[in-house]
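Re: your question about Sulfotransferase

S., sorry for the slow reply, the queue was backed up all week. Below is exactly what I fed in.
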Amino acid sequence: MAPSIGDDDMAERLVVSSLPLETRFPPFQLRQHGGFWFPEPILPDIVAVRAVFAPRPSDVFLLTFPKSGTTWLKALAFATVHRADHPPCAPDHPLRHRNPHDCVEFLEVPYALTPDADAFAALPSPRVIATHMPYSLLSEQIMAEGAGCKVMYVCRDPKDAFISTWLFARKTAVAAAAEAANDDEPRPVPTSFGMEEAFELFCDGRCPGGPQRPHVLSYWEASRRWPERVLFLRYEEMLGDPVGNMRKLAEFMGCAFSGEEEAAGVALEIVKLCSIGALKNVEANKSGAQNYVKNEAFFRKGLAGDWSNHMTSEMAALLDGVIEDALQGSGLAFPAAESM
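Result:
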């Protein structure tokens, strides 16, 4: 029998409005919970996940800080796990007709509709599920000793993560404004959002999912404690050797490529299927949407080092310093601004 939401969890739902509020990162209204900032609407769902979700030993969880390769990781993991039923070369492959976010759901999203039941209970195993939740708020059952679940975490250079977050927020604000204009009930229209203000908020950790530093560091430390259960990947290294990292990813998930598949180049075909160029050309990614976020907003450049086209060297050095101080002594480091 699935666990149910108790009185304490319901009480936590009821005090969301009393949590610290940040309104300067439009179009998101952020609330601080457990030391992290979340869009206000998903906080009840995060509570419901911890109370209701029942993990299975075969579950694979895809973890990222927002705008750190989430869409790409979803596509790669989905195509790898389901390659027997959906060969990457097949013209009817789901990723040729659907957005990766429709193929791999976020753990916290479905509970907005079904807060008192396990929204993933009906999915067949192995389940591939994504989330942006920090380690400290992840369901204790997922990381419990003997649970058997696998966690794959992708980190990205904070400078690129910031630029992608800011540009995504601007696109989302435009879409939200358009939706508001069509509503019967008028809502505030998001204002323009400059990079300087966004940068200050990001450095201070006041951004969706922020702060980034403890988010990344907690999973880095978990990967060092339990390397057989937590795989820590770098977005930049994945771009540099996508096929090699595909092999690592598949082996970690327990579905390594066979010798026959290696000879047939299956890993390379998956990489091609999931490339940003291929995904951009999928009709569903040109015209579809996730709520009021257009699917096309999830596909920008997918490059490493694009921050240099937007940020000043002074801003980059400042953010590098913030990150270096936060990660000192951890063994984890990001490339300095001048090396890009």
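The domain at 28-339 is CATH 3.40.50.300 (Rossmann fold). The beta strands are 21-25, 28-33, 36-39, 60-64, 128-131, 150-155, 230-234, 289-290, 293-294.

Happy to talk it through on Thursday.
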